[in-house]
Amino acid sequence: MKTLIIAAHPHIAQSVVNKRWLDELAKHPDRFTVHRLCTAYPDGKIDIAREQALVEAHGGIVFQFPVYWFNCPPLLKQWFDDVLTYGWAYGSAGRAFAGRKTGITVSLGAPAEDYRPNGTVGYGLDDVLRPFELTARYCNADWQPPFAFHTIDSNAGYDEAAERLVAQSAAGYLAHLEGYFG
């Protein structure tokens, strides 16, 4: 079964990293379904039945987003709040994610060194992203390691070296998906 990529970037046209990742995934429509939340729901009104059907129609689920203030963009948070309903995603009868490979792919505008106990953030990236893991595990999903890309600060400009790093990250992302979501 294909892997569903639920992409949540409110400004994808201005994105460097997430846009490139989605462009790479689009080259593999036999393996991935790319679902752009902000395009599907510009008004913020999520069709819960549609979203649940999308999840059920796929083998694995990957949530792709830029980290905003140590969290996901608001529409993805709303997706979790609205779509992960009792009796469907969790609870005694909630089996939608049970055993389903689930993970996240994130971009961060800060270097990896910042995400260490002695770094600027003061916590490791796994600690910062723990709520997503906890959510998946609470829904009995088969949690997979996150894929993260650091250091492209869109406010600092974009040069040839940055372009090479983004291209490498796209290849790394595909390899990550192949390795964990097969």
Automatic annotation (TrEMBL):
<feature type="domain" description="Flavodoxin-like fold">
    <location>
        <begin position="1"/>
        <end position="166"/>
    </location>
</feature>
<dbReference type="InterPro" id="IPR003680">
    <property type="entry name" value="Flavodoxin_fold"/>
</dbReference>
<dbReference type="Pfam" id="PF02525">
    <property type="entry name" value="Flavodoxin_2"/>
</dbReference>
<protein>
    <submittedName>
        <fullName>Flavodoxin-like protein</fullName>
    </submittedName>
</protein>
<dbReference type="GO" id="GO:0010181">
    <property type="term" value="F:FMN binding"/>
</dbReference>
<keyword id="KW-0560">Oxidoreductase</keyword>
<dbReference type="InterPro" id="IPR029039">
    <property type="entry name" value="Flavoprotein-like_sf"/>
</dbReference>
<dbReference type="GO" id="GO:0009055">
    <property type="term" value="F:electron transfer activity"/>
</dbReference>
<dbReference type="GO" id="GO:0003955">
    <property type="term" value="F:NAD(P)H dehydrogenase (quinone) activity"/>
</dbReference>
<dbReference type="InterPro" id="IPR046980">
    <property type="entry name" value="KefG/KefF"/>
</dbReference>
